[in-house]
Amino acid sequence: MIRVFRCEDTLTGILTGVYDAWDSRLGHQNVRLSSVAVEDLELFCEYTDVEPDVEKAGKVFRTVKRRMGEEAALMIAYASACPHDGKADAIYRMIVIGLHLPDGREICHMLTRPEVNLIFELRKKAWHIAHRYMGFVRFRELENGVLFSEIEAEADILAMIAPHFADRMPGENWALLDRNRQKAAVHPAGKNWFILEDVDEAKLSLPGLSREESYFQELWRRFHRAVGIRERENKALQQAFLPLKFRNVMTEFQEMSTPLKR
Amino acid sequence: MGYRIGQEMDLMQKLEILADAAKYDVACTSSGVDRKNTGSGTGNCMAAGICHSFSSDGRCISLLKILFTNECIFDCRYCINRRSNDVPRASFTPQEVCDLTMGFYRRNYIEGLFLSSGIFQSPDVTMDLLYQTLYKLRREYNFQGYIHVKAIPGADPEIVERTGYLADRMSVNLELPTAEGLRVLAPQKQRSRMLAPIRQVQMRRQENRQELTLYRHAPKFVPAGQSTQMIIGASGESDFQILKVAEHMYRKYEMKRVFYSAFVRVNDDSLLPALPGGPPLLREHRLYQADWLLRYYGFHTEELLSEERPDFNVLLDPKCDWALRHLEYFPVEVMKADYQTLLRVPGIGVRSAQRIVKTRRLGTLDYGVLKKIGVVLKRAVFFITCGGRQMYPVRLEEDYILRNLLDGKEKLPAGTAPACMQLSLFDDPRFSV
What we know:
The complex is a heterodimer of chains A (about 260) and B (about 425).
Chain A: E1 2-6, H1 11-23, E2 31-34, E3 45-49, H2 54-79, H3 87-100, H4 114-136, E4 140-141, E5 147-151, H5 158-168, E6 174-178, E7 183-187, E8 194-196, H6 213-226, H7 235-241, H8 244-247
Parallel strand pairs in A: 1-2, 1-3, 5-6
Antiparallel strand pairs in A: 4-5, 6-7, 7-8
Chain B: H1 11-22, E1 53-54, E2 60-61, E3 63-67, H2 94-106, E4 112-116, H3 123-140, E5 146-150, H4 157-164, E6 169-171, H5 179-185, H6 191-214, E7 226-232, H7 239-253, E8 257-262, H8 281-296, H9 301-304, H10 318-325, E9 332-333, H11 339-343, H12 350-359, H13 367-373, H14 377-380, E10 384-385, H15 398-406
Parallel strand pairs in B: 3-4, 4-5, 5-6, 6-7, 7-8, 9-10
Antiparallel strand pairs in B: 1-2
Helix pairs in contact in B: 2-3, 3-4, 4-6, 7-8
C-alpha cells in the first residue's frame, strides 16, 4: 500500500508534504508526494491531504540550506514555481538523496539521477521565464503616478522578478499583477515589496492613465518600428525569441487605444 | 516634465529619424556589469543583460539605440547618413535624450541607452555633446542603468576619458576590416585614428583595475569593456582576413566583443558591391560562430581557416568543419576526456562540457543522460564514445560523417541548400561553391 500525500502547489505546501511524508515513518519507498489539484485516484493507494504549515516548511527549508547548500535550496524553490505533475515527488526524492550524501552540496551535480535532473530542468525553466519577464514587463503610468503592469506567466515567478524591480526603482510606486494566479506584487516607494493574494482583476478599479502615458507608448511603438532593418526582415526569428504568448501584455504589439495627446 | 519642442520638429519625428539612422549599428547588448541600485536613483545592471524586445528582423532590443545627431560632416560611401545623401536630418538636445531614456526606462521598455552620433561640426564638439548628455543623465537624473557610448575618433582624449567614467561600455567601430577598404569607402576615416581611442580606453582600464584593487570605491572606468564592429561584404576581404582582425582585437586590445554586420546596400554608389541575394547573412552567421570558437572554445584563426582556404564552408559550421579535417583527435571518450578536449567535439558546448565534467564525478554517464545534459547528439554521436561504446555503430570516415551531418541539419537560407538533384559520380558536397 502506498501512501500519497496530497499537498498544495506552493513551495510551502510541498515542503510541508516533505515533512509529513518523512515524519510518517512509512519508509521512503511507501510514500509519494503529489501536488496535482485534481488527480485520477489509483487503486492500492491511501490519500492524505496535507495542510500547508509555514513552520514545518521552514524547518525543512532550513535543513536543506544547511546540509545541501544554498544552491540546492534555490533549485528547489525555483522548481516549485513551475507547473509539473511530478515535481513534488522529485523534490522529496532529491531531499532524501541529498541528506544521505556525505556532502549534501554535491546533489546539484548529480544529474544522472532522474529526480535531480527534473528539478534541474524545472529550475532552468523557471529562471528562463522569470528572466524573460524581467525584459517583457511593460509598466504604464497611472494618473496617481503608480506604475502598473499585468503579466500572464506560465510559472509562479512573481516573487523572482519583484526583487529585481524593487532594486531597480526604489523610489517608485509600482504593482505587478499575475493574471493567471490572481496575485500581485506591490512596491510602495522607499519601502519593501510584498505579495497580495486573491486579487480579483475584475473588481480592481484602476485610475486612468497619466497625461504623458499614451504619448510615451506611441514614442516606443514608433521606435520599435524604426529600429528594424527591412532588408533583414525575419519574423520567424523574432517569434522564436519573443513568442506570441508574451505579446498581449506588451505595448509595442498593441494598437493605440486612446487618441494621442500630450 | 515639459518637452522642449525643437524649432521645426517634435520629439516623435526626431526619435523616428535618429532611431532609423542608428539601426545599422549592431551592438545592443546590456551585459558585462552587475550593479545594484544605490538606493536613491533609478536603475541597476545585470551581468547577463536583459533583452526587452525583438524587432521585426529578429534582433534584440535592449537599449534605446539612437544617434545624437545625423548631421554628419563625413561622406562614407556605405553610410545612410553621409553628407551627400538627401535624408531628413535631426539633432537631439541632451535634455531630450534624458527625458526619453528616463521615460522608457521607468516603463521597463529598455535596459539603458546606446548613444552614437554622426560627426557634428568636429569630433571634439560631438564628443563633448555626448559627454554633456551622459553627465546630465548620470548626475542630474541619477540614472544607474546601462549606458553604451561611442568614442569619436579624433576627439580630445581628455573628453573621451571623462566620458568613460560615466559610461559602462565604449566602442569605436572599425567599419571595414582593412585599411585599404577604409581608404576607398570612407576616405575621411583613418585606421590609425580609430585605434588611438581604443588603445587609450584599454590603457585607462588597466590603470583603473589597479586603482580598484587599492581603493574599492574608486570610480570605475568603462566597466563593461569595449566593443567594435565591422561591415561584412562591402569590400573584398576574405573571412580569413576578417577573423584575423577580430582575433587581433581580442588579443591585443582586450575587446569584449567584435560585432559583424552584413552589408546592407543603402546607397547607390558605384564602388559598393551589388547584392542581388540580399545582405550576406549566412556569412555573418558563420563569422559569429567562429567568433565564439575564438573566445570560448580555445580555437585560433589558423586552425579554422588558412591562406589556401580563406572562406568558411557554407554547408557546415566552422566547428564541424574543423572536426572533419582532424579526425585523428576522435573519437573522444566522454567519461575521461578533459574539458578542453570535450569543448572541441561538435555538439558539445561550454555549458554541456561543464556539466559533463561535474556530473561524471558522481555517477556514470550514458547517452540518455548526455542528451538531457544538453549535448546535441545528432552531431556529437560521430565523435564520441561513452563508457567505451558508440551510441550506435558509426564509421569514423570523413565522407560518411559529412553525408550524415548534412542530412536534415540546420536550415540553410534558400539557394544555398542543394534541393533535389540528379546524382552524378562526382558529387561531393565539399566541392560546392
